[in-house]
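> example.struct
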């Protein structure tokens, strides 16, 4: 079996050689051109010693070079390891070391300083390939120009490692989610089916291409679609791109959907080309969903997934959205029903038995796009995959009609603006300040972000620090999306009967009056 990224891009280049594959600012590449550039990179990587089964990391930047890097790595039979660009140097260093990556591709010159710092920190990092690279690294374009010839074709088997996707872990260290050729291909085909992708449709990639946006990217290769890349999710740039390029497919975390709907420019652009909007990765309020349907029409989809199983394991169709508006408002808080294209979901109690309708349990999935394991974490893998069922740690319930409702998160993970934040990572940064005695971090309702990161802190006796200084201290140690939006000081933090800090009790007073301890963008508090 050929790596799915290599196979489907190569097929599109044969079937649609002159169709535009990607639009990145002033750069337009046909499938023929994208295929040639990715193949040249693959040959360059092979010359550097990359072999099947190796891991090659890529710092995320939203541009065509990032896309080429993933395909080029796949063509060598190696696994790609995309790393979100805004993470800290310590995060990137951990991922590189954990994955055992000896080659790092840097698709934007703005990330060169980070790459050099990582190289100095990790002697095992043997090669840097950098766009506009200086002495001491491989310049990206020079490497491509030195290569010519046919695309390499490396075959493996279905269970070979295709990619490692890192997600934050409850231990404070990122978890490497390993996907095989088979699970990667199944997710691509699943997104094609769910999004009803057709040859020639156009997807807008404005969120990080290492994460949610990749679902429009790789599914588009299966059907010969065009990807329009923006560097960041700016509403005005997005509206202009939709109008100019006839964008048909859009992914949006609820926070961005709300930003679009609230923006005064939205009605000054023709957005009628859109025929698919999927809001996911965080909860959305019923009011926000209703507004979106009123503005965009019956084109909204949603569902439940995650890095470990990144197709939509549950799915709510446009027709189901309309039915919810027509007398079933509560369903607008649902993430839909078990999907109809290959995944199975169950809600299980602590003994692994199905819960009754209306009762809360852990939402689990069994699907061909599920991960194979956590990289280098066999014990965690065994805890997570039980009898073939993947346990996400999300708590949910079903109603009588089979709709699924997320209730809370078993592990206290915060979803803010579609990004996952684990409280312990933030708490550990706060604990580094000499004045901090106790810290607890949790999500609180926020109309814009869905949930905002909130910290409560108790100071050591005789010590003092104000909110601004402590947040500035945290800013030096955390990725931007992890920094608390606000911080309160308490004489002491609530404790459990055995004396442990009770994050749940600290959180409870901020959720007073809420129907559920999970919050969507656009939900009034």
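> example.seq
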């Amino acid at each position: 079996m050929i790596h799915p990224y290599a196979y489907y891009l190569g097929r599109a280049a044969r079937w649609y050689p002159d169709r535009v594959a990607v639009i990145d600012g002033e750069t337009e590449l046909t499938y023929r051109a994208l295929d040639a550039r990715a193949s040249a990179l693959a040959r360059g990587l092979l010359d550097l010693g990359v072999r099947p089964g190796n891991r090659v990391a890529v710092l995320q930047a939203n541009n065509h070079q990032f896309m080429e890097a993933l395909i080029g790595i796949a063509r060598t039979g190696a696994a790609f390891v995309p790393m979100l660009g805004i993470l800290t140097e310590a995060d990137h260093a951990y991922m590189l070391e954990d994955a055992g990556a000896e080659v790092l591709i840097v698709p934007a010159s703005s990330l060169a300083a980070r790459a050099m710092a990582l190289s100095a920190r990790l002697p095992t990092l043997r090669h840097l390939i950098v766009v506009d690279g200086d002495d001491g690294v491989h310049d990206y374009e020079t490497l491509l120009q030195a290569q010519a010839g046919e695309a390499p074709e490396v075959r493996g088997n279905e269970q070979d490692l295709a990619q490692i996707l890192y997600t934050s872990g409850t231990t404070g260290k990122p978890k490497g989610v390993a996907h095989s050729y088979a699970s990667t291909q199944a997710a691509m085909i699943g997104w094609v089916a769910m999004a009803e992708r057709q040859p020639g449709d156009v997807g807008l990639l404005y969120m990080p291409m290492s994460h949610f946006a990749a679902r429009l990217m790789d599914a588009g290769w299966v059907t010969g679609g065009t990807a329009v890349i923006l560097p960041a999710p700016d509403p005005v740039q997005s509206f202009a791109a939709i109008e100019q390029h006839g964008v048909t497919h859009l992914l949006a975390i609820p926070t961005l959907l709300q930003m679009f709907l609230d923006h005064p420019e939205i009605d000054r652009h023709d957005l009628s080309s859109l025929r698919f909007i999927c809001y996911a990765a965080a909860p959305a309020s019923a009011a926000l969903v209703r507004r979106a349907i009123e503005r965009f029409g019956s084109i909204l989809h949603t569902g439940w997934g995650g890095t470990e199983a990144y197709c939509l394991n549950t799915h709510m169709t446009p027709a189901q959205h309309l039915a919810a508006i027509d007398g079933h408002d509560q369903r607008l808080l649902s993430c839909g029903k078990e999907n109809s294209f290959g995944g199975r979901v169950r809600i299980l109690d602590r003994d692994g038995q199905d819960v009754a309708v209306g009762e809360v349990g852990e939402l689990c999935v069994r699907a061909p796009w599920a991960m194979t394991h956590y990289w280098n974490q066999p014990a965690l893998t065994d805890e997570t995959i039980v009898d073939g069922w993947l346990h996400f740690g999300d708590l949910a319930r079903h109603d009588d009609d089979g709709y699924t409702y997320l209730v809370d998160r078993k592990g206290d993970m915060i979803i803010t603006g579609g990004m996952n934040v684990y409280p312990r990572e933030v708490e550990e940064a706060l604990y580094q300040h000499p004045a901090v005695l106790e810290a607890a971090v949790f999500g609180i309702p926020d109309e814009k972000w869905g949930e905002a990161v909130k910290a409560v802190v108790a100071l050591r006796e005789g010590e003092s620090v104000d909110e601004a200084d402590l947040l500035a201290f945290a800013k030096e140690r955390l990725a931007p999306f992890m920094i608390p939006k606000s911080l309160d000081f308490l004489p002491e933090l609530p404790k459990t009967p055995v004396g442990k800090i009770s994050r749940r009790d600290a959180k409870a007073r901020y959720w007073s009056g809420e129907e559920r301890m999970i919050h969507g963008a656009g939900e009034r508090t």
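> remarks
The longest helix spans residues 31-47.
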